[in-house]
Fold this protein.
Amino acid sequence: MRILFDLDGCFANFVDGFAEVIAKVGGSIPPQSDSYPDVFAYDKRDLPPDIRTAAWMEVGRSHNFWMHLKPYDDKLMAKLSAVQHIHDFYFGTNRPGPTTKFQTEVWLMNWFSNPTVLISGDKASLAKALSIDVATEDQVSNANGIAEAMDGKGIVLLLDRPWNRGEKEENRVARVKSLDKALGHILWPDGEV
Ligand SMILES: [Mg+2]
């Protein structure tokens, strides 16, 4: 199977990592950062624009910010790692910065042998061009776009997160509480790997 994984919000904890950067540039770590409306959309909350800009500049300058994010679920990463030779895994992300692709590859190499990282904001085109069977997302707009591009031919899993509950996914998108369970049904249906 060909699977397009989204990283931030699904597998990588960008929110907590970015909160640390915000503190570093003189802002305050947002309380309950998990409830932010969207992992990248800090402008939708009360973060002053100059702090937000400084934080993103800091991320852009850093050669290791993306390498040091925490995974949400280490066990799930291990399970995916165990089936990486059976399926085609693609990791699609719109992370900005000059060394982002390399940093993301290094991060993924904690679990995967030769991770394929695709940097693009156009997930729908990626999914279509790669004839993806399964995609994971935490952003409703991306999930809807992918479902549209795949035209009902694949499975789009939208991971239920506090920041995506205010938006409605389209019918072809499956909102799931757990990626472990949802991916497990598809990738290791006979039980634990
Ligand atoms: Mg995401």
Notes: The pocket of magnesium ion is lined by residues 6, 8-10, 39, 138-139 (CB under 6 Å). The CA atoms of residues 144 and 170 lie 6 Å apart.
